[in-house]
Amino acid sequence: MPFRLNLLFLAVFLLFSLLVVRLGVIQIVYGDDYVSELERTENVTVNTSVPRGKMYDRYGNVIVDNVPLNAITYTRYSGTTAKEMLDTAEELNKLIKIDTKRVTDQDKKDFWLLNHPEEALEMLSDKEKELKPKEQYKLQISRVKQEDIEKIIGEDLKILAIFREFNSGMSLTPQIVKNKGVTKEEYARVSEHLDTLPGVEITTDWNRTYAYDETLQTVLGKVSSSDEGLPADQIDYYLARDYKRNDRVGKSYLEKQYEDVLQGQKAKVKNITHKGKVVETEVISEGERGKDLILTIDMELQLAAEEILEKELLSKKRGGANRYLDRAFVVLMDPNTGEVLTMAGKQYVVDKKTGKSSVKDFALGNISTSYTVGSSVKGATILTGYQAGAIYPGSYLNDQRMKIKGTPDKGSYSSFGSINDLTALQKSSNVYMFKTAIGIGGGHYVYNQKTGMDSEKAFSIMRNSFASFGLGVRTGIDLPNETAGIKGSEITLPGKAMDFAIGQYDTFTPMQLAQYVSTIANGGNRMKPHLVKEIHNPINDSKSLGPVYQQIQPTVLNRLDMKDEWIKRVQTGFRMVMQPGGTGYANFSKADFQPAGKTGTAQAFYDGPNRVKGTPPEDTMNLSLVGYAPYNNPEVAFAVVVPWAYQRHQDHSMNKEIGYQVMDKYFELKKERQKADAKASDKDKK
């Protein structure tokens, strides 16, 4: 017995000796290291978002602005546990109202597991408890009963909604908990209790506001919400550019195209942490809101154009025009710079549930939809004929109905007899264009005989030439997702090449027509259309524009490889269209702005949204009109397109009515502004 006791005492002595030695090593050898570790702090830099840049029209009228919003945010520290977040969420729930619509069943299952740790553990067998945590979690989630999550209602559901927002943010990055409908009372209550709400802050967020409601909204684009954050399909792109997952970005069109300048310079804050807690915050840079865009758009003219489109659209619908008529477009641009002054589109829609009709903004349709446009393109056909040697300025051809062996006869709306190129444009002769296309393909017309033309050659020459005007290719406008139109595939048939020459085969967008007529108006330069005129740096005074950061210079995409006298010849033909005997004279006879242009009517098939599946497409007529003014010194060019305007037994001139009214409004506004400028100048002199 004494021996055993001595042996036990010896063992205890040795163990205590080892403990003393170990403590000595820790204190003496590694003591300084451990003290340093306890005192160690980390510097973590966090970027916080700033309001986006504004958008103005060419005269300084605000189009897109930011409206401030009271916001409540939560910043999760690196050492914060789920239980601590849950406790904070419970306290915050006492101070604010929260929307629970975004809570999912998955969120409820997570919440149940968090609040029932012992029961969650009992869900696993002994063997399953040896699995990795992620695999255990998957099993537990799958075993949470539906009846358990259905009990998460009332206050528990609200706490979960707040906890869900807490858990959505990245560590040390502010996550918006609520920014819509934060009342002054809520803002004040949270402000008073910040010391008991670790990680919670009150701040000011922003939202996009549109001064002209729906006007141009389809072109201006959208910005993601704080809930959406970065678009899922572009998340890697933005993360590589120092964005955070919950950052708001431009999702479409101008907002997306100019994201780099609209986003602004984020504020940078350095968080100094100790043991996972933020002990000090240092502002590195205040940040700067996004740069402002000055658009080329004249909003007063834009609104007038939209009003004209809507009025004409509703008028023709009430007048019994084609039941498929549901849209109309008009583009006005400076032919010398490519600046888009107006980009208007309207669409007539009927709610299938209520049966109520309304007219919606469809400005985007000017670049995203394309149509056969008819005779408006005949200026390009004539110039291509000159270039290919099929005709020359002053060539006379006989306009009588044509019969090509094995095909139905073709002709103009009337037989004009022997006419030259100018009269062909003025009267809109189809036969003159048909014979020009045959000549381009190396053929020759003889009544009831084959033409001998190489239609593939004709298509190749005409399409390449049309592209130099901007027809059938993307215009290069500063907007994403522009369509190039649709090219017909049957290029071995002479009749199709002849149809192409009168604008009844390939499809073109209204913006392409505006670029095409601008190319003729300015003497042969294809200008790149653009919607942004200038980019300005922001300044502290949010009501004023800052200094110019960048001016968007006019860009010539290509020069027509054609003689100047040929282009002037077509300009003369376009002028004759608007004079007595021309197809546009009836509507433009009273115009004092000296217009030139070309009308267009195309036989088409309805392929729009209301087509009945399984039935053949119905015949309709598309209307178009292109032009510019004044004819001898063009300052504005325009294009009008009215798809599916009427069926063949009907008739109206909606394209010309729109074109005249919009152009008349342009020059009316010009006179008013000149008078206002003269008055202001006189006042300054006095």
From TrEMBL:
Family: Belongs to the transpeptidase family.
Coiled-coil regions, chain positions: none
PANTHER family: PEPTIDOGLYCAN D,D-TRANSPEPTIDASE, PEPTIDOGLYCAN D,D-TRANSPEPTIDASE MRDA
Primary location group: membrane
Protein name: serine-type D-Ala-D-Ala carboxypeptidase
Alphabetized Pfam families for the sequence: PBP_dimer, Transpeptidase
Record key words, sorted: Cell membrane, Cell shape, Cell wall biogenesis/degradation, Membrane, Peptidoglycan synthesis, Transmembrane, Transmembrane helix
Membrane topology (UniProt): Single-pass membrane protein
GO terms classed as biological process: cell wall organization; peptidoglycan biosynthetic process; regulation of cell shape
Annotated Gene Ontology cellular component terms: plasma membrane
UniProt-listed Gene3D superfamilies: DD-peptidase/beta-lactamase superfamily, Penicillin-binding protein 2a (Domain 2), Penicillin-binding protein, N-terminal non-catalytic domain, head sub-domain
Species annotation: Peribacillus psychrosaccharolyticus
Annotated metabolic or biological route of this protein: Cell wall biogenesis; peptidoglycan biosynthesis
InterPro entries for the chain: Beta-lactam/transpept, Beta-lactam/transpept-like, PBP_dimer, PBP_dimer_sf, PCN-bd_Tpept
Location of the Penicillin-binding protein dimerisation domain: 49-281
Swiss-Prot/TrEMBL catalytic activity: Preferential cleavage: (Ac)2-L-Lys-D-Ala-|-D-Ala. Also transpeptidation of peptidyl-alanyl moieties that are N-acyl substituents of D-alanine
Domain Penicillin-binding protein transpeptidase residue range list: 329-664
Enzyme Commission number(s) from the entry: 3.4.16.4
Entry's localization field: Cell membrane; Membrane
SUPFAM superfamilies: beta-lactamase/transpeptidase-like (SSF56601), Penicillin binding protein dimerisation domain (SSF56519)
GO molecular function (one): penicillin binding
